[in-house]
Amino acid sequence: MPADSETTHTSPDEVVPTTGIQQEEVAPRRSTRVTSTSKSAAEEKSAKKADANADGNVEQDDNGAKKAKTTQSKKSSDDSTESLALGDTLPDIVLKNEKDEDVNVKGLEDDSAGVVLFLVAKADTPGCTTQACGFRDVYPNFEALKFKVFCLSADSPSAQTKWQTKNSLPYPLLSDPKRMFIAALTGSTAKTPRSHFIFVKGKLAEKKMPVKPVDSPRFALEFITALAKNGDAAGDAISSETVAVTDVPTDADTKTENVAEADVSGAAEI
């Protein structure tokens, strides 16, 4: 028998080979390991895609990415439209006022030196009330300068009337539930940005968007006052004798300046 062969003698008649009986556990073949690793990686990648699709933040693939971007772009496009530029005239749109009466926007400036329109997202909400009461407090100054003031929102006339009565608002409110005039001014068909617009001689002369509720009345009055002092655009209706501006509220004077501005509605305030 060769020297390198091992045997176990259990009896004179039986010889059992021992080579290979106590072999160590054989490792999986390489192809099995590769398949297992690939499967784990694929499962992990699939899980990440599922999470990403749920969040809407990560692209699934090239086609999915293009589709997502197109949808987002279309939504943004649907929510916006062309807005009035400086120098444009008041549009021919008929709205209801807080008394449920028809008002043609084109004629808002009749018998006045100009018009101030301030926009709020929703009546009787904190930030909007701050802005509205600010215009209320300096309303006599606008009257002295022969400017009309209007509040514009998408609220119903009845909601506007309640808000007007509750806060003693001296100026008219315009109801624009279809956002026709709001969109013409702001360019947004879905939201009502906090803002104000000033028309002089029928043309848009100033727009502030966005603007803080406490600043809106002051900025509007300062702009009109500057026109009067400089003898610009407002015409003969404004004279230097009617320019005195008193008690214009500032951040320090307004008690409600720290009130949260999270106005409810499909509109998001800015």
From TrEMBL:
<dbReference type="GO" id="GO:0034599">
    <property type="term" value="P:cellular response to oxidative stress"/>
</dbReference>
<dbReference type="GO" id="GO:0008379">
    <property type="term" value="F:thioredoxin peroxidase activity"/>
</dbReference>
<dbReference type="InterPro" id="IPR036249">
    <property type="entry name" value="Thioredoxin-like_sf"/>
</dbReference>
<keyword id="KW-0575">Peroxidase</keyword>
<dbReference type="Pfam" id="PF00578">
    <property type="entry name" value="AhpC-TSA"/>
</dbReference>
<dbReference type="GO" id="GO:0045454">
    <property type="term" value="P:cell redox homeostasis"/>
</dbReference>
<feature type="domain" description="Thioredoxin">
    <location>
        <begin position="84"/>
        <end position="229"/>
    </location>
</feature>
<feature type="region of interest" description="Disordered">
    <location>
        <begin position="1"/>
        <end position="85"/>
    </location>
</feature>
<dbReference type="InterPro" id="IPR050924">
    <property type="entry name" value="Peroxiredoxin_BCP/PrxQ"/>
</dbReference>
<protein>
    <recommendedName>
        <fullName>thioredoxin-dependent peroxiredoxin</fullName>
        <ecNumber>1.11.1.24</ecNumber>
    </recommendedName>
</protein>
<dbReference type="InterPro" id="IPR013766">
    <property type="entry name" value="Thioredoxin_domain"/>
</dbReference>
<dbReference type="GO" id="GO:0005737">
    <property type="term" value="C:cytoplasm"/>
</dbReference>
<keyword id="KW-1015">Disulfide bond</keyword>
<keyword id="KW-0676">Redox-active center</keyword>
<keyword id="KW-0560">Oxidoreductase</keyword>
<feature type="compositionally biased region" description="Basic and acidic residues">
    <location>
        <begin position="41"/>
        <end position="52"/>
    </location>
</feature>
<keyword id="KW-0049">Antioxidant</keyword>
<comment type="similarity">
    <text>Belongs to the peroxiredoxin family. BCP/PrxQ subfamily.</text>
</comment>
<dbReference type="InterPro" id="IPR000866">
    <property type="entry name" value="AhpC/TSA"/>
</dbReference>
